[in-house]
Design goal:
Elements (H helix, E strand, L loop, with lengths): L1 H23 L1 H16 L7 E3 L8 E5 L1 H10 L6 E3 L4 E4 L2 E2 L5 E3 L15 E4 L6 E4 L7 E3 L2 E3 L8 E5 L24 E4 L2 E3 L6 E12 L2 E3 L6 E11 L2 E3 L4 E14 L2 E3 L4 E5 L2 E7 L2 E3 L6 E4 L4 E7 L2 E3 L13 E6 L2 E6 L2 E2 L17 E6 L5 E3 L3 E5 L2 E6 L6 E3 L2 E4 L8 E4 L1
Parallel strand pairs: 1-3, 2-4, 3-6, 4-7, 5-8, 6-9, 7-10, 8-11, 9-12, 10-13, 11-14, 12-14, 13-15, 14-16, 15-17, 16-18, 17-19, 18-20, 18-21, 19-22, 20-23, 21-24, 22-25, 23-26, 24-27, 25-28, 26-29, 27-30, 29-32, 30-33, 31-34
Antiparallel strand pairs: 34-35
Length: about 425
């Protein structure tokens, strides 16, 4: 009898405590319920969440999944929804995006060019122009996908975004469109985009965009080719692309930070027309041309380069001397290069021939209102730390201590520019 009374008492006590907890934490529970709702419903078909395998996609790396993917896309509402790719390898013709939608997967992958996790999406054939066509789209995300071009076709891009439905005016020529239209807000996150015969990603007049936590590598041309504005590149790797890691011609008001840009065929970052760019806190290594190549013949102005590490760039020995450098600046205005570290890091297997790279840490030609100061250049170059050509106007180049690489004594010749 005593035990029954005790158990009833305990049961009532626990019920009372539970009631009290719920009463005191109802808003907390509602909040976490809202947060958990999309997680708990993930994978369930609904008007705004579609799994491509539920509509016939095989993902076996052999079958043509185009019709299944297109039908799944047609199920999504006009302004929203998630097209989900479970683990698998999907072959498809061009995939056309819809406004305010997300292409999503749970991709895993490694840095190596041919080492992909899943889900992987590849072009069915080589005459598609691009795999993901976001031309004219607004508010599209690619999250957690591996796009593998398999080197098919010629000049095929992984992702393309443009404004073919609007008047095309190249920026920085003194004229702009009367109306920019709507910001595109294209986001690529946690993706690997590789092995396309063209560019990994190409934006034509992209306005408001971000590429985050992604690897864009081993593409035939550029990792990222951009004409556009107001973008962010954060925590990415651009490597082993045939031309540049990032190629910007008409590239403005954007930030590149916390990224690794290496082993690209013609250089790390090229900027033709452009302004208002920040390149910060990134690592540049063994690009065959300059890590950063600013060509101001087409108007380049107001760029900051700070907090970066430059190691062994200008690698191509057949390169013009002015491009055999970590940074090459031509006819630029308002550029600041400060607080960077340049270090050759000689390795035991380096070629013993007297011709080494880079010739220069920084090559400059005809600068206006620029500042190059406060950079550390320990073993920063083989011939000259900073090579000045042409006439500069109102430009400061000073306090850049360092030394040339000298294998004979291991320390190098002391230089200060």
């Amino acid at each position: 009898m005593h035990s029954k009374k005790c158990s009833v008492s305990i049961s009532k006590n626990m019920s009372s405590r539970l009631h009290l907890f719920i009463s005191n934490n109802v808003w907390c529970l509602l909040f976490f319920g809202i947060l958990l709702r999309p997680v708990l419903s993930f994978g369930q078909n609904s008007p705004d969440f579609v799994n491509v395998k539920d509509f016939g996609a095989s993902g076996d790396g052999v079958s043509d999944d185009t019709k299944a993917i297109q039908f799944a896309l047609s199920i999504l509402p006009e302004n929203g929804g998630v097209l989900y790719f479970p683990s698998g390898h999907y072959l498809s013709e061009k995939i056309k995006g819809k406004n305010y939608m997300t292409f999503a997967g749970d991709a895993t992958f490694s840095w190596l060019p041919d080492s992909n996790g899943s889900p992987v999406i590849s072009p069915l054939n080589g005459d598609m122009g691009c795999l993901f066509d976001l031309d004219g789209c607004v508010g599209v995300k690619l999250v957690g996908l591996v796009l593998d071009g398999q080197k098919k076709g010629e000049n095929m891009d992984g992702v393309f975004s443009g404004r073919s439905n609007e008047e095309q005016v190249i920026p920085f020529e003194g004229t702009f469109r009367k109306s920019l239209g709507e910001e595109q807000n294209i986001i690529i996150e946690d993706c690997k985009i590789s092995n396309f015969s063209g560019c990994g990603v190409r934006f034509n007049l992209g306005w408001v965009w971000a590429i985050r936590k992604s690897i864009i590598s081993s593409n035939g041309l550029d990792g990222f080719n951009i004409t556009g504005y107001d973008g962010y590149i954060i925590d990415c790797i651009f490597a082993l692309n045939g031309r540049m890691g990032i190629y910007g011609d008409g590239f403005t008001a954007s930030t590149i930070t916390a990224s690794r840009i290496e082993l690209n065929g013609a250089g790390g970052i090229y900027i033709g027309r452009g302004s208002g760019l920040q390149i910060a806190n990134s690592f540049f290594c063994e690009n065959s041309g300059p890590a950063i190549w600013i060509d101001g013949a087409k108007k380049v102005r107001a760029i900051t380069i700070s907090g970066n590490i430059f190691r062994r760039n200008g690698k191509n020995r057949n390169q013009k001397p002015e491009l055999n450098s970590n940074i090459s600046l031509f006819n630029a205005s308002g550029v600041v290069v400060s607080g960077n570290s340049f270090h050759h890091m000689t390795l035991p297997w380096d070629d013993p021939k007297p011709y080494r790279w880079p010739r220069y840490s920084i090559f400059t030609d005809s600068l206006n209102d620029c500042v190059i100061t406060g950079n550390a250049m320990y073993q920063g170059a083989w011939e000259e730390l900073i090579c000045n050509r042409g006439e500069h106007k109102n430009t400061v180049i000073e306090n850049n201590p360092g030394r040339l690489v000298n294998l004979s004594n291991g320390s190098g010749e002391l230089k200060t520019n």
